[in-house]
Design brief:
Layout: E1 12-14, E2 21-23, H1 39-49, H2 77-81, H3 108-125, E3 131-140, E4 143-152, E5 155-165
Antiparallel strand pairs: 1-2, 3-4, 4-5
């Protein structure tokens, strides 16, 4: 540990096209144990930041690739460890335009909201949280913001904010 207030691990996301990356590190407490005080928020970040397996009929962001992403650990996850396939399909929007509701492809804002809702629903189904709300809005011509509020019964809800800058996502 590099200092009492400095984490050994940090989360960094690179949205610069074409090298998307996330670096994870673990936050250690002064006694050397892992800080698990934000376990639910961490699980949500992983669920939204991990690429879910695309359906065979999903339009992939790279027309020259047939990589549907997903994670090999999802194979038999429910049978083996009572888990569920993790991740979201937000990655499918990497090269998408921000479309209005009138577009043939539909509203990009609604797609973002729906992808978040689908990724979060297993948390409710498995009683990891008691519920959630999602608010997604187009802030300007190049940005969509999302606020996710996760409820944990009588405990204080967790608010997680996300900003997606389309101009940083490449052509």
């Amino acid at each position: 540990m590099s200092g009492a207030n400095v984490p050994d691990i940090r989360l960094v996301q690179n949205n610069i096209f074409p090298k998307y990356s996330v670096t994870l590190d673990w936050l250690l407490l002064p006694d050397g144990t892992l800080d698990d005080s934000q376990a639910l928020a961490t699980a949500v970040c992983i669920a939204l930041g991990t690429n879910a397996l695309a359906a065979p009929d999903d339009v992939l962001p790279d027309p020259d690739s047939n990589d549907r992403c997903g994670w090999w650990g999802d194979l038999d996850a429910e049978l083996i460890w009572n888990g569920w396939p993790i991740g979201s399909k937000l990655w499918l929007l990497r090269r998408a335009k921000i479309n209005p509701a009138s577009a043939r492809e539909g509203s990009t804002v609604m797609m973002v909201e729906n992808y978040i809702r689908v990724a979060m629903q297993p948390f409710v189904d498995r009683k990891v949280c008691s519920g959630f709300d999602v608010w997604v809005s187009r802030v300007d011509t190049q940005r969509i913001d999302a606020l996710l509020r996760v409820y944990r019964g009588p405990a204080q809800p967790i608010d997680l904010r996300y900003e997606v800058l389309w101009d940083a996502m490449g052509p």
